[in-house]
């Protein structure tokens, strides 16, 4: 009688926002140990940004599984999408294969990996998994621009961009620093708001950090931005000028 197959391990890996060198060493070891590597790709995109972040890292082409991720606002549609993905991953794990699931930035910061992990835990109560943290887009942006993300007792808020100027204005007025993610097509009116509030000069913008088409700007009084520039963009918003200490 043959021995039961040992369940494979799921590794959630944040590959950072751009350069391959941002991948932590422990995560790189897990990536190379994986039999299959799932690479999320935005719907309609030609390339997986996560795969672009792995430039220079050699992986067997047959191990790569590119998947289109769904961010439909309908929660029932979203649940069904990640259930189907979880069923696919679970089949590989039960067969004894190690699986790596890649996300840009950090594994559990506004990441599709969190949805997958919940669905997989329901399917495999004894799921064996490891989650490796990654460098967030805002940490990389702050480093690239030498822009401190918080000093002393400054209050920092990290959030996806609200849908209205009024909501964002309130967030800015009640915090010292606001890190704005998932800006998307809202970018033009966000910049208009910063100028209306008279704070654009001490805010910063970063897009596609370390990737082709990278944009970095500190001081946004004259930044001319289209809606398309909001994809993979992060804004660092400071309500008051930085104090010298």
What fraction, in percent, of the residue positions are helical?
Answer: 25-40%
Count up the domains.
2
Order of helices and strands: EHEHEHEHEHEHEHEEE
Structural class call reads alpha/beta
Low-confidence stretches: none
Please describe the biggest sheet, giving its number of strands, its sense, and whether it closes into a barrel. 5 strands, parallel
What does the average pLDDT come to? Answer: 89
Q: How would you name the CATH homologous superfamily of the largest domain?
A: Tetrapyrrole methylase, N-terminal domain
CATH topology of the largest domain: Cobalt-precorrin-4 Transmethylase, domain 1
Order of neighbouring strands in the sheet with most strands: 3-2-4-1-5
Strand proportion, as a percent range, falls in 15-25%
């Amino acid at each position: 009688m043959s021995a039961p197959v040992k369940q494979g391990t799921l590794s959630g890996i944040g590959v950072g926002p751009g350069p391959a060198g941002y991948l932590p060493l422990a995560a790189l070891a897990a990536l190379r140990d994986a039999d299959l590597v799932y690479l999320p790709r935005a719907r309609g995109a030609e390339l997986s940004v996560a795969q672009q972040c792995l430039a220079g890292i050699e992986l067997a082409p047959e191990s790569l599984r590119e998947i289109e991720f769904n961010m439909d606002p309908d929660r029932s549609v979203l649940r069904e999408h990640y259930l189907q993905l979880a069923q696919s991953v679970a089949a590989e794990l039960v067969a004894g294969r190690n699986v790596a699931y890649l996300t840009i930035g950090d594994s559990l910061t506004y990441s599709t990996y969190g949805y997958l992990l919940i669905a997989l835990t329901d399917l495999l109560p004894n799921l064996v998994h490891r989650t490796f943290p990654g460098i967030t887009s805002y940490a990389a942006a702050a480093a690239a621009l030498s822009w401190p993300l918080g000093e002393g007792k400054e209050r920092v808020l990290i959030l996806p961009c609200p849908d209205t100027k009024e909501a964002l204005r309130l967030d800015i007025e009640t915090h010292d620093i606001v890190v704005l993610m998932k800006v998307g097509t809202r970018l033009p009116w966000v910049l208009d708001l910063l100028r209306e509030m008279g704070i654009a000069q001490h805010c910063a913008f970063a897009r596609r950090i370390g990737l082709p088409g990278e944009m970095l700007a500190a001081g946004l009084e004259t930044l001319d931005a289209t809606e398309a520039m909001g994809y993979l963009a992060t804004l660092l918003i400071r309500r008051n000028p930085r104090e010298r200490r």
